[in-house]
């Protein structure tokens, strides 16, 4: 069974290929697809196992085999035998070059199935890598070195597989050849794992004794383990139930990706069906609006379909002209998913910059993209011990449970029920990096029970009575740049013009509403969020609101801008170079900060992100406060 | 009753999903079109993704002027059949300097393809470019993401790539950045051939065997496709029954001797022969990890 350099098992082609290619193609056109992930370190023989699967499924060509043979002689670790690990390694060099490898994907096929293997290298980035690979996997192969038994990393792999909702777990007890195929040792490992698995909620898994190196129980049942009565690994992979099949039994869910409108006579909604099935005539509901209609037809280039199922990408046409656009979800009319804006979630942090609680991130779920804020985590999970630990934030590779809220309601389902409507990513609004992945568990009650109370006198009515267009004049700039002074001059000018105004000053607000807040990044964000909400209420009341806050972060200024109707948020950049502000040092704060007596001082040991496109910019080196104020008022005209 | 989707149906649905995400989120996408079999599959998938609309982006052929004649013929027809605009870009500097694969070695690829692609993307302001690369093509592509981010100068910063979870792709980027998107990343060579067979997709006749004029050079079997091929003193073109497994610039693309003249025969031969696909391309033999290097420079 052992392939050696003297006796390589060369690419033994299927006889059907040579004798009847048409019959062969027919068989291979009806294969299904299984995606799986392998978990284990190099020491567990993971690369050897994957190499063995590629080799035994005849996916290795002669030139690759020749390379493999010469590499095995040159740098193999298996003496005269072929070192299968060399087929899939080759990532080490890249790691040295500093290339981030989250997952490498490999492909092989047998008569029954095509397989996509997600291979996650590395220890240090392991959580991020494995979560990425596991997100699309139907099955996880958890490798154990038979000599070592259940280790800390076995627990970690199992926890992450469970977290990502992988239903099929194979416990591959590898290197059985090195323990002389000892059944008692194997049974003991399986028993220990069974107990651990139950403790994290894994009720079902498939154990098997294998040797990736020798080939035991890979494609054929091994004579070395007569006591094993299960399937060999390959046969198990070929027959295990597919998630995609299970998804078809669930109620219909399809996120709309794109509205297909080639002409006035055709309006279709394109997307990939996440769960369920759909037929012409089916009653459907579009969420979040809740409007209902029936399916007129299912359109594809190959003709109209009488049925489409989970996994297919289709275009649906309705019998009624109802509103539906990208981000909406088409669902079974009698069994729609929930709509909510506050959730409990588990979040896996994937970026070097830690989570900033309260900061606004983009959240992408299905085809919905909304602004979302994450609260400080309730706890983080130690993936080695499963212990819960207190934490204020989430660092790279941390997994935490936290509340998350979105700026508008989204259509969702608990991740355990529906991966497509429960899994999301978070995107940094400035760098555009994907910083986290998460899973929604349930909506929070307060979101379900607190409804917006409609009032009869609206914001337009308030503004009309005051004969002005409400606005927020948001002054931003370094400490000592002259924000408060200029804002005060502007308010005086507006007052003389009989305008109804109010000036919210940074220092003054910290004496009352925000006296519980300090100057950490998190507190600064909360400070701005509250001021934004208050300013918005005042604008709703019809006032022209002036705010004078350093407001150093672009993301928070943009957050306030997003709360208001287009054109009502006026960002005024009081542009004063740091040297000038520091030289002025009206309040003596720079001196204190330089002396280390004041922490987190903007411009010194805390960053200031200047506006990229301010609505108004004043340069206080060239203009006096009065000139700056006059310039600003001129830019604001007309005030109605 | 459960209807288990075949692997090709799932790969097709995935590629269509990716193409639609790009169209929904990108400002000005384009599909790179090389006229090869992978491009043929990409074009077919694009038609499926947006039917009954024509694909809402143009095709871009970064031409080197050294492709096979048969490829130029199919290029025009394929674009017309799909109802898509075809943009052909040839690097004017390469034209002026007469860059060719016989005299200029790897400079040929560098100027016509790498530089030509950058020029075309900049000239037209495309922010997302679809490409037909697959992860199974060679070892270094196995880890490539489906959305690959490029800096303003088209550089590939390996540290600045994003994790891809579920089927959620983050297409947000700064104004000057661009994205290369590979919808058929998870397809293998056999998948491509089976799909072409199943969907009856038109491909360049050079993939099928026919008697063609050839010379052998540096262990590669080259086709004398036009009069620009400089024959050495001792070289006389010999007619052989050949076909190609991949298509590029004709002086750089090795043929295989074959009698396979139908698609099933080609697939049969592919399964029975024992060398991997890229062996026929000179670009890989330049130096170890050459693809990796070319990618960092902005080659697809």
From TrEMBL, chain A:
NCBIfam families: apsK (TIGR00455), CysN (TIGR02034), PRK03846.1 (NF003013), PRK05124.1 (NF003478), PRK05506.1 (NF004035). Keywords: ATP-binding, GTP-binding, Kinase, Multifunctional enzyme, Nodulation, Nucleotide-binding, Nucleotidyltransferase, Phosphoprotein, Transferase. The active site is at residue 551. Residues 31-245 form the Tr-type G domain. The keyword Mitochondrion does not apply. It catalyses: sulfate + ATP + H(+) = adenosine 5'-phosphosulfate + diphosphate; adenosine 5'-phosphosulfate + ATP = 3'-phosphoadenylyl sulfate + ADP + H(+). Proposed to provide activated sulfate for transfer to Nod factor. ATP sulfurylase may be the GTPase, regulating ATP sulfurylase activity. APS kinase catalyzes the synthesis of activated sulfate. Its EC number is 2.7.7.4, 2.7.1.25. It is an enzyme of class 2 (transferase). PROSITE patterns: G_TR_1, G_TR_2. GTP binds at residues 40-47, 119-123, 174-177. It comes from the Bacteria. One of its GO terms (biological process) is hydrogen sulfide biosynthetic process. This is Multifunctional fusion protein. Pathway: Sulfur metabolism; hydrogen sulfide biosynthesis; sulfite from sulfate: step 1/3; Sulfur metabolism; hydrogen sulfide biosynthesis; sulfite from sulfate: step 2/3. ATP binds at residues 477-484. Heterodimer composed of CysD, the smaller subunit, and CysN. Sulfate-activating enzymes, NodP and NodQ, may be physically associated. Belongs to the APS kinase family. CDD domains: APSK, CysN_ATPS, CysN_NodQ_II, CysN_NoDQ_III. One of its GO terms (molecular function) is adenylylsulfate kinase activity.
TrEMBL record, chain B:
InterPro entries: PAPS_reduct_dom (IPR002500), Rossmann-like_a/b/a_fold (IPR014729), SO4_adenylTrfase_ssu (IPR011784), Sulfate_adenylyltrnsfr_sub2 (IPR050128). It is an enzyme of class 2 (transferase). Keywords: ATP-binding, Nucleotide-binding, Nucleotidyltransferase, Transferase. It comes from the Bacteria. Residues 278-300 are annotated as: Disordered. GO terms for molecular function: ATP binding; sulfate adenylyltransferase (ATP) activity. One of its GO terms (biological process) is hydrogen sulfide biosynthetic process. It catalyses: sulfate + ATP + H(+) = adenosine 5'-phosphosulfate + diphosphate. Pathway: Sulfur metabolism; hydrogen sulfide biosynthesis; sulfite from sulfate: step 1/3. With CysN forms the ATP sulfurylase (ATPS) that catalyzes the adenylation of sulfate producing adenosine 5'-phosphosulfate (APS) and diphosphate, the first enzymatic step in sulfur assimilation pathway. APS synthesis involves the formation of a high-energy phosphoric-sulfuric acid anhydride bond driven by GTP hydrolysis by CysN coupled to ATP hydrolysis by CysD. Heterodimer composed of CysD, the smaller subunit, and CysN. This is Sulfate adenylyltransferase subunit 2. It comes from Sphingorhabdus rigui. The lineage of its organism: Bacteria, Pseudomonadati, Pseudomonadota, Alphaproteobacteria, Sphingomonadales.
